[in-house]
Amino acid sequence: MTDETLLAPFDDDVLGQVxxxxxxxxxxxxxxxxxxxxxxxxxxxxxxxVYEWRKQYDDPVLVRTPDLFILALPPTVWxxxxxxxxxxxxxxxAVTAVHxxxxxxxxAVEFSDIPRDHVALVVxxx
Length: 126
Prior knowledge:
By secondary structure, the protein is of the alpha+beta class. The protein has helices at residues 3-6, 12-21, 26-42, 46-56, 75-85, 89-105; strands at 61-64, 68-73, 119-124. A three-stranded antiparallel β-sheet has the order 1-2-3.
């Protein structure tokens, strides 16, 4: 599985704009986003993760297509990934911004669909 495949749900302009706004190199941001997608696929797997999140949180799935899920989850989910992937605060902020920006650019999601105390997470389905 290539980084290009893992980055498929994210528009190039979203990645570029978020990199510039967060003062992070585009290559580093793309690697971090791809690492996150890879981690979800490998441990324990996309379908298993979404199943667990659906059991644990109240209706977190905003969008489900054959290619991806878009979810609204508590920030603690991102904090756990940051620890697992050894993201510093700047990298975590940029990666979560990519997911948030991509989500609000998705026609199927209204900004108001994301609860105030939750953050967006885009999961590419293998």
